[in-house]
Amino acid sequence: MDNELLIKKLNFKSRRGMKETTFVVKNFLKNFSKMNKDEKSELIELLEMNDQDLFDLIFRKKELFVSKFPNLKKFAY
User: Fold this and answer.
1) Selected residue with higher pLDDT from 66 and 23
2) Helix (H, G, I), strand (E, B) or coil at 57
3) Element (H, E) at 52
4) Sign of the dihedral defined by the CA atoms of residues 52, 39, 28, 15, in that order
């Protein structure tokens, strides 16, 4: 999949049901062009999560987020 199509797909998936998660995910996407292959892969995996799990992971279980998505942590906080 080319980068432009992937970015469009990720932008669509970034529209979340919670304002807080949408803000964080949009921040990831702003940095997409700076990401390497591993970071992009983790981002795609992250966007597959449902809103509540994503919220919990980012705001309540930060240690788990860092261990599960070590390559994305520099873009999150």
Assistant:
1) 66
2) helix
3) helix 51-55
4) negative
Neighbours of 29 (CB within 10 A): 17
Report pTM: 0.77
Alpha carbon of 12 to those of 18, 60, 65: distances in Å?
14, 25, 22
Q: Which two tokens stand for residue 9?
A: 């797909």
Residue type present at position 9 = K
Mind listing the pLDDT tens digit for each residue in 19-61?
A: 888 888 888 888 988 999 999 999 989 888 888 898 899 899 9
Instruction: Please report, as a single letter, which amino acid is at residue 37.
Output: K
Transcribe 30-48 into DSSP letters: HTGGG--HHHHHHHHHHHT
CA distance 77 to 13: 20
